[in-house]
Structures are given as structure tokens and as C-alpha cells.
Amino acid sequence: MSIERTLVLVKPDGVARNLSGEVLARIEAKGYTLAELKKVNATREQLEAHYAEHAGKPFYEPLVEFMLSGPVVAAIFEGHRVIEGFRSLAGTTDPTTAAPGTIRGDFGRDWGAKVQQNLVHGSDSVESAEREIGIWFA
Ligand code: DAT
Ligand code: MG
Questions:
Q1: Hey, is 100 helix, strand or coil?
Q2: Whole-complex ipTM
Q3: What positions does the entry give for ATP binding (predicted)?
Q4: Residue of 50, 54, 80, 121 marked active site
Q5: ∠5-38-86 over CA atoms, to 5°?
Q6: Which of 72, 79, 136, 138 qualifies as a FRET site for 127, CA 20 to 30 Å off?
């Protein structure tokens, strides 16, 4: 299998809680290579493109608003099977029940918002990764 790339975001909750370094350290400790890194205030246009698959769902607008609420850290990581490797490190979507030992399981929980504030985003396929990298690292 060829070397993959994935798009990782530390979401506004993770940045606000000073967990960016912790998240990046866990990915590096797993053995993946940091290729690009920046802190950015997302635009609504970027987020609408990034989350196009979720348009119309009940959590979509709260999700976009949450992602606009503060800066995010965007990164590209590289390595064999990094897409599924990072999603395993991140844990399942709902941070309350994400397994301990994962980023979401160790640092996240339900704060009562209409959207899961679950600290990180990771691409879910090679196609999504290339699409998302184009949005955040144009
Ligand atoms: P993931 O981020 O695990 O790939 P996703 O792509 O299905 O999950 O959804 C994108 C984000 O939207 C997710 O990180 C948090 C939010 N979200 C998803 N499902 C939700 C739900 N049922 N209620 C509230 N927020 C949700
Ligand atoms: Mg997703």
C-alpha cells in the first residue's frame, strides 16, 4: 500500500483547552509524519465545503457555528494507513462513550450542546482526505 495523507483538525474546543500539542504528540508518537501545520480561523465557505456531506442534518448548523467559534489547528499527516490509524487514535464520534485511551475518550464529553464537541476531525477515506486537504491547504 502506498503512503497515505490525512487531514487532521484540532477543533475549537481542543485549541481553547490547550490540547493541540497533546493531540499532535499522540499522532507523532504513533509514528506518523507531520507534513503541514497551521492555526487558522476557518471561514463559513471552507466549513460548508468541508462538511458538505452533512448539509441538512439537524446538527449541521450548530456544527458550522461551533467550528467558527474559535481558531482550529489544521495538519496533514502522512504514513501507511494513516487515515484509519488516526481515526482509531481519535475514537468514536460521541466523546462520552469513546473508548478511554483515545483522544475523544480521554479528553471529551457531552457539554450539553447540540453538536458533539469532540476535539478532532480526521478524514475518513483517501478521496475525502485529498478533497479536505484542498480546502484547508489550498
Ligand atoms: P466524525 O467526526 O467522527 O467523522 P461525522 O463525520 O459523522 O463524525 O460528523 C461530523 C461531526 O458532526 C462530528 O465530529 C460531530 C458532529 N456530529 C455528528 N453526528 C452528530 C449527532 N448525531 N449529534 C450531534 N453532533 C453530531
Ligand atoms: Mg466524518
A1: strand
A2: 0.99
A3: 11, 59, 87, 93, 104, 118
A4: 121
A5: 35
A6: 72
Taking only the tens place, the pLDDT of each residue in 32-68 is 999 999 999 999 999 999 999 999 999 999 999 999 9
Q: How many CB atoms lie within 10 A of CB 27?
A: 24
- The parts of the chain modelled with pLDDT lower than 50 are none
Distance CA 46, CA 35 (A): 21
At residue 1, the pLDDT reads 63
**Do the annotations mark residue 93 as ligand-binding?**
yes
Helix ranges restricted to H, 3-125: 12-16, 20-30, 44-50, 60-67, 82-90, 103-107
Active site residue 121: yes
Question: Is 87 one of the annotated binding-site residues?
Answer: yes
First to last CA, the chain: 26
3-state percent helix, strand, coil for the chain, nearest multiple of 5: 45, 20, 35
* Grid cell in block for residue 37: 501545520
CB 77 within 8 A of CB 86: yes
Unique residue bearing C-alpha cell 484542498 = 134
